[in-house]
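Narrative progress, year one. The postdoctoral researcher (J.K.) led the effort to move from monomer predictions toward full complexes, under supervision of the PI. The following entry was the first complex the group processed end to end, covering 454 residues in total.
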Amino acid sequence: MAEIDTRLRILDAAESLFTQYGLDATTLRQITGAAEVNLAAVNYHFGSKEELIREVFRRRLTWLNQQRLRELDRLETEAGGRPLKPSRILEVFFGVALKMAADTNGGGRSFMRLLGRTYRQPPEFVRSFFAEEYTAVIARFKAALIRALPGVPGEEILWRFHFMMGAMSYALTGTDALHIVAEDALDDSDSDALYARLMSFMLGGLRAPLPDLSGGRVKRPRISKAA
Amino acid sequence: MAEIDTRLRILDAAESLFTQYGLDATTLRQITGAAEVNLAAVNYHFGSKEELIREVFRRRLTWLNQQRLRELDRLETEAGGRPLKPSRILEVFFGVALKMAADTNGGGRSFMRLLGRTYRQPPEFVRSFFAEEYTAVIARFKAALIRALPGVPGEEILWRFHFMMGAMSYALTGTDALHIVAEDALDDSDSDALYARLMSFMLGGLRAPLPDLSGGRVKRPRISKAA
DNA sequence: GTCTATATCATGATAGAC
DNA sequence: GTCTATCATGATATAGAC
């Protein structure tokens, strides 16, 4: 039954199970069981569970971020030296992710759920790996946004980028949270509509008036002390 | 050493450890060790680890949502029958959370981190409990927002609420993700500034032009097939 | 490369003395 | 209510035959 694609079978099964049950809760027995592969094969091919996990992320994340850079390159080349529109920049960064998430067959949807879940709180042994994968990309998109929005300080752009990541994360992979908010009132299966909704929300946030950061009193609701 | 506050010591230690290591990864031995309490005390006072977890959430979450409803009641009473401003509504819902998150001493900060982390993907045995805690609150705030934004359909409001939860989640408890985006360029310790930034971003998103959901082609980047 | 069998360890839970 | 001691379970990892 097993050939050299054992390695691939393990990666696919692991990706799917990690998405369903989480990194910790998924056992090597589950993985090898689903992959119809022997338990010992994981340690033979990957050395350890941790290295398997890193490899699950590596094979897709590297590709994802390469696409982002490639698309941004193309846009900037087309534009000559002129700044891009903010909407185009967001469309590249988040559109690539949404597109992967819309791929129900190839496992892209599953992977994006896993990524969204892990990106936020990577276990120690993936954190540095994530940082390597992302820093170049973030830097490029930050620079493009700064040029696109001359009125907005770089610091503010990074914050808004962070908030947008949160919004995207909930949009793409927050199905459980969505059901708490919306019971069954919302349908997250139409990825085109979701993309449109998310884009207009993000653009609105990205171009919002700058916050008043004057040291003075910030408007906040007064909360009574009652227990 | 031990009295009847054993129960409290366990809850506090559990909250803190769950925040640091996650629900699964935290063991009862860690908890009872930190609480300086006997291992068997957890099962005596709570019956099981799962029940302990629910209790950790219950004691703070109930209070949090009660505050939200109370503040909203107050605003609506003050306004007579007139619709509230969207900004005031957001200030209540998110302001209460931010305020709790800013409480470094009483453990509020730790709890909000835990909540943000768990809300998104609750284990089965907390999901229904979360739903109970949230449905009434969401319904009230949704209604208020619908009245405040007559041009925006209820469905769109729920989506934007969902996106806002994502943004807040990253703002309040996404420190790890923030460092991936920003290396060390951003400081998330100034909670007043963070609140102001988050509010203007959210308001911009909430009031953004409605997305074009016409069945036609939605603008999306073309991704090349290259592997 | 693949398999069986097993070593080693840590977990949640509990029985029963105090 | 609190403690010690222990059980049953399931985990990762690996040794060694094929």
